[in-house]
């Protein structure tokens, strides 16, 4: 009798274990680790989390951890329950700083580039230029005498300016500020001559006339800034956009990565979500893991070279 009971208990435990292992994903809440509250990564993460919560029937919870979000995701169990929502900092920071505790190609599984944020080349209204060509000619006639405003080192307003310097062959001087907002305020106050803020930040000041917009940094014209030409129309090949992406820890099962990609793409392309993202200054990308991986490798080569050639190191 005792042997029968023990066998029955063992059989029941084994059945429960198999059932637990074969439960469809997701069977519990999923965590999006991301940067500080209120920033672009946080806003995008929260909008996507709402859509995935509805679509997959489990809560997607945003966990704001700052830059350590990447390390948290890297060290998490690769089961699809901890995901990372972050930008290109993940793959560019190793060029800017020594001893970064992750390898962008080895430690993460790409899911999708969710959105892109073009920057806008703006100048102070007192600058006697009204086009990218006029700006280049003006700067070349005054090497080292034209200042550009930039906030945090290594983020898109800074790196888009450095790429412009490299490709246009102009000598601009960076004036550092403690963030994008103070940098834009410095430009408006006339402390600097130009800047590459993201479209969401620049648009209100463009409409009020506090800054003059010359061009958009994306390869194609942007609906976020209708009527503006591209920088690439004057500087062939120039393209710079900030991106916000979804990653899983490396070794996450391919079936889970595929499911997350499919559902994320569906959410991102829904009319309501797309409109909400657009209104916050984002253009939906929603590509495949393979396309995301190819983009990351190409951007590492392009911007890694710009960073190295300019001697940019984290302050």
Please provide a written account of the structure:
There is one protein chain. This protein is of the alpha/beta class and 315 residues long. The protein folds into two domains: 8-115 and 243-310, Bordetella uptake gene, domain 1 (D-Maltodextrin-Binding Protein, domain 2, 3-Layer(aba) Sandwich), CATH 3.40.190.150; 120-233, Periplasmic binding protein-like II (D-Maltodextrin-Binding Protein, domain 2, 3-Layer(aba) Sandwich), CATH 3.40.190. Helix content is 44%, strand content 19%. It contains eleven helices and eleven strands. The chain has helices at residues 2-21, 40-56, 69-74, 89-96, 132-140, 156-168, 180-188, 199-208, 254-268, 271-279, 289-310; strands at 30-34, 60-64, 82-87, 108-118, 120-123, 146-150, 172-176, 194-195, 212-216, 241-249, 283-284. The strands form two sheets. It has a six-stranded mixed sheet, sandwiched between helices. The protein has a five-stranded mixed sheet with strand order 7-6-8-5-9, with helices on both faces. Helix 2 links the parallel strand 1 and strand 2. The chain is globular and about 65 Å long.
């Amino acid at each position: 009798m005792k042997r029968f009971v023990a066998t029955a208990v063992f059989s029941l435990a084994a059945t429960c274990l198999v059932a637990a292992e074969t439960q469809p994903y997701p069977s519990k809440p999923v965590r999006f680790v991301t940067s500080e509250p209120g920033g672009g990564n946080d806003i995008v993460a929260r909008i996507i989390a709402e859509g995935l919560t509805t679509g997959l029937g489990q809560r997607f919870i945003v966990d704001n951890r700052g830059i350590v979000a990447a390390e948290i995701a890297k060290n998490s169990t690769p089961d699809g329950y901890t995901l990372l929502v972050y930008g290109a900092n993940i793959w560019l920071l190793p060029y800017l700083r020594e001893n970064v505790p992750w390898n962008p190609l080895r430690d993460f599984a790409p899911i999708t580039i969710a959105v892109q944020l073009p920057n806008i080349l703006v100048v102070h209204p007192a600058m006697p230029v009204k086009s990218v060509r006029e700006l280049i000619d003006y700067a070349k006639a005054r090497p080292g005498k034209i200042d550009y405003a930039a906030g945090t080192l290594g983020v898109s307003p800074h790196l888009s300016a450095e790429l412009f310097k490299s490709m246009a062959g102009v000598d601009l001087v960076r004036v550092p500020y403690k963030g994008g907002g103070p940098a834009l305020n410095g430009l408006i106050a006339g402390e600097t001559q130009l800047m590459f803020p993201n479209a969401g930040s620049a648009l209100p000041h463009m409409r009020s006339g506090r800054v003059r917009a010359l061009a958009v940094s994306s390869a194609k014209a942007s609906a976020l800034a209708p009527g503006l030409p591209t920088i690439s129309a004057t500087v062939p090949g120039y393209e710079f956009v900030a991106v916000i992406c979804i990653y899983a820890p490396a070794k996450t099962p391919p079936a889970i990565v595929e499911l997350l990609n499919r559902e994320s793409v569906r959410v991102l392309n829904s009319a309501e979500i797309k409109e909400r993202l657009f209104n916050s200054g984002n253009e939906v990308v929603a590509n495949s893991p393979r396309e995301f991986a190819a983009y990351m490798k190409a951007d590492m080569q392009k911007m890694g070279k710009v960073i190295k050639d300019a001697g940019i190191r984290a302050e």
